[in-house]
Amino acid sequence: MKKKTVYVCSACGHETAKWMGKCPACGQWNTLEEMTVREEKNAFVPSANRLAPQPVPVCDIDLDSDKRVSTGIGEFDRVLGGGLVVGSLVLVAGEPGIGKSTLLLQACKNMAKHHTVLYVTGEESLAQIRMRAARTDAMEPSLLILPETDLENIFEVAGRIQPGVLVIDSIQTINSSTSTSMPGSVSQVRESTLRLMQFAKQSGTSTFLVGHVNKDGGIAGPKVLEHMVDTVLYFEGERYAAHRMLRAAKNRFGSTNEIGMFEMAQSGLQEVVNPSAALIAGRPEDATGSCIVCTLEGTRPLLAEIQGLVTKTAYGAARRMAAGIDYNRAVLLLAILEKRAGLMLSNYDSYVNVVGGMRIDEPAVDLAVAVAVASSYLEQPVHRQTALFGEIGLAGEIRAVSGTEQRLREIYRLGFRRCILPLPGKDKLDLPDDLELVPVRDLREAIRAAFKGNN
Ligand code: TYD
Ligand code: MG
Q: Could you tell me the pTM of the whole model?
């Protein structure tokens, strides 16, 4: 065996043969870490006693490999694509303190009713886990806790008790003796994850990894981890707000658009059964700069409140800020508002916010962002019963988005009776009669419609 050293960027996972101060792929400084990889000599020479791998006809593949286990938490199952696939490796990533350990402990409690569950903690003492278990009512005899950071010991215990579900909290604390670098370093995390993946596949143990995310939103250390696991779930939200969102960033066994919503309470995480209502609760009455949009996350329509605020720039260049939507998209929408709707925003500081710590990536939110900003600029509140959605093009045109009927139903369900939206497509919509639809062609029309009927 020959040893070879490579350098891996902890921010983006880029690999180079020699050390550099700056990563050539992502441009970050001092992120390259040394990593030893073993190279086998003549790896491709087939040995005489090696069994040749056999391909299988596609129709003969055993479908048992898609068996799923329910976590007992509806929102969690939904994001996993309908439950946990047996033998899969799932990474649950999020900032420290967001509730990853709580979520997994609660899921483990439910799964321990039918399976042996091994919860390995490298971060907390048994007493701490016991306290959390008491709070979340997780006193199950088949839920076994192991405080351990050494991967060999973990495999030894897991091999002995053969759990159906294994949790590693967190991957950054795990230490594999096959790698010589520090726990938490790229090569350690990569090596440990690789071996856990092999273990999960060979033994059929469904495995959860907890991964801490640093401030920039990357999974601390290696982004490389994402390529290695079956499913990546992000648990996110404002640390000091009660709502938490679980979303899939990658899923080999389901859609990546699904989201689950939770609330942190005294007795652990509670599922939010009516997320739209929760997200728009507390909306100020007749305030300017606020409007309601319906986004479509996976198969689930969700209402959200978008806020805009513009104030005269005191000096220098106008400030722009966006929370919950992409900054560049927000700046683009401000430019379109200026050019196509005649709002002189270049002399104004502009702020856009999605209420409740929610993040929206889809372009259907464009119209709501533009109207919220216009509402603040024109000092006109949007009518309380009006919701809107639609993508805005550079010419100021309002473009169609998918899932019109689903969005409209959700809007109606939550008590809104008027909706500003793109011109209808060919599909016939089956909607309640007392929902007023206001199709608009461009941004000017949309703004006029949004403030029509105000005093
Ligand atoms: P934790 O699950 O430890 O977060 P992570 O594993 O992501 O670092 O818990 C996060 C926070 O939740 C912690 O500050 C305490 C709080 N919490 C509650 O409010 N109620 C509860 O029932 C529990 C268990 C925790
Ligand atoms: Mg934790």
A: 0.77
